TrEMBL record:
Lineage: Eukaryota, Metazoa, Chordata, Craniata, Vertebrata
EC annotation from Swiss-Prot or TrEMBL: 2.1.1.386
Name by which UniProt lists this protein: Small RNA 2'-O-methyltransferase
Family that this chain belongs to: Belongs to the methyltransferase superfamily. HEN1 family.
Keyword S-adenosyl-L-methionine applies: yes
Gene3D superfamilies: Vaccinia Virus protein VP39 (3.40.50.150)
GN (gene name): Henmt1
Length: 378
């Protein structure tokens, strides 16, 4: 593993705060926040730390990792699984995380359709033959809108105590800024991308001429890719092996939407009922003058509508009422509560989602609850 194990140990002049690997990941995160890609692939993802950080970015719906070493990916891949809290309150966005075992020197259709591809400290680990194939696989075949490539800047090495030939024994090369820029410009030109250079890991004061410790190229595709051009290059065969896949709970999945709506409807109905009964108990004269049938009958005005449910978003024509021991909360009232309205979108969808899961009046127009009063003591 190559998480700057040397870069972080350097004593004296060059100690990065935050550590350099975190600065690289933060660079990617900032880029994600700026461009809001939906599909992101990290090539040479190693122990999946970057993917783990990116899963919190709410714009991302598909995250994929690729590494030639399955062992390093598997060590910590459980971090990419949903947590119990993700099931308790599923968000609107969907998220699928997949890890593939394979090489960036080979094309696989599972790598098509990504908006952003990151290659963090990857290229210096590639054999000459792999580095030759890399541009065609990433820029020609995958052809995402944005590619980020980071690699060590060898001009910085003299400032890193203990570094003689390279920063890591597995590095096949380390490039100066001129070498990286010439490779990147040629690659960008061949595949119709533009490229801009930057970096992370500031040089010490007075040594600015060496540049950043990590150099970064951000490539942006010049022409939008058409579906036809992507599909025409699609190879028939999958060569990567999928080693992990997690589908996060989301309200886009009908099953989670239904349980969220049912919970919200029951909560709303209970809150309205409670407010209604509180009102009723505080003004007994309003309902106590018809003792003949021993039943309560009460239709409050909406000024007893609980404020904590939010301001009604649709005009509400029917109002909750009590008959005997039963409270009726019209579905139209429940639909006009912001959270329910937002979840269902339409009244018909509300009816469809709660059918058979919430007790309704015989005509299906109201949620029915027992009028049992729950005050603070019980
Ligand atoms: N991106 C990570 C890891 C960098 S180390 C980080 O920033 O910390 C480089 C990673 O690339 C290693 O995990 C290594 O196994 C992987 N790698 C090397 N050659 C590869 C190839 N041909 N295809 C895919 N991954 C490769």
């Amino acid at each position: 593993m190559d998480k700057d194990y040397q870069e972080e140990q350097f004593a004296g002049i060059t100690k990065f705060t935050p550590p350099l690997y975190k600065q690289r990941y933060q660079f990617v995160k900032d880029l994600v926040e700026k461009h809001k890609p939906k599909k992101v692939a990290d090539l040479g993802c190693a122990d999946c730390t970057l993917l783990w950080m990116l899963k919190c970015c709410s714009c991302i719906e598909v995250l994929a990792g690729l590494d030639v070493c399955a062992t390093v990916m598997k060590e910590n891949m459980h971090r990419l699984s949903p947590l119990p809290g993700d099931y308790l309150q599923p968000p609107e966005r969907s998220l699928t995380v997949t890890l593939h075992h394979g090489s960036v020197a080979h094309k696989d259709p599972c790598m098509l359709g990504f908006d952003l591809v990151t290659c963090i400290e990857l290229i210096e680990h590639l054999e000459e033959s792999e580095l030759k194939k890399f541009p065609e696989v990433v820029f020609g075949f995958m052809a995402p809108s944005i590619v980020v490539i980071t690699t060590p800047n060898s001009e910085f090495n003299p400032l890193l105590p203990g570094v003689i030939l390279s920063r890591h024994p597995d590095h096949k090369f380390e490039w100066s800024r001129a070498q990286f820029e010439s490779w990147a410009l040629e690659t960008a030109r061949s595949y119709d991308y533009s490229v801009e250079f930057t970096g992370v890991g500031d040089p010490p004061t007075g040594m600015e001429n060496v540049g950043f410790c990590t150099q970064i190229g951000v490539f942006v595709r010049k022409c939008p890719q058409t579906i036809e051009s992507a599909q025409s290059e699609k190879p028939a065969e999958a060569v990567y092996q999928t080693v992990f896949r997690a589908v996060y709970p989301s309200l886009k999945d009908e099953k989670y939407l239904q349980s969220a709506v049912v919970n919200e409807v029951i909560f709303t109905a209970q809150t309205i009922k409670q407010s209604l009964l509180d009102h009723l108990m505080s003004e007994p004269e309003e309902y106590s003058d018809d003792p003949a049938e021993g039943e309560l009958e009460f239709q409050p005005s909406m000024n007893c509508f609980p404020e904590d449910l939010g301001t009604l978003v649709v005009e509400n024509t029917m109002e909750p009422f009590v008959i005997g021991n039963v409270v009726y909360i019209p579905l139209t009232t429940i639909f006009s509560v912001p959270r329910v309205n937002e979840l269902c979108g339409t009244f018909e969808k509300l009816c469809e989602l709660i059918a058979g899961r919430v007790t309704l009046s015989s005509d299906g127009s109201a949620v029915v609850l027992s009028a049992e009063y729950e005050n603070e003591e019980n």
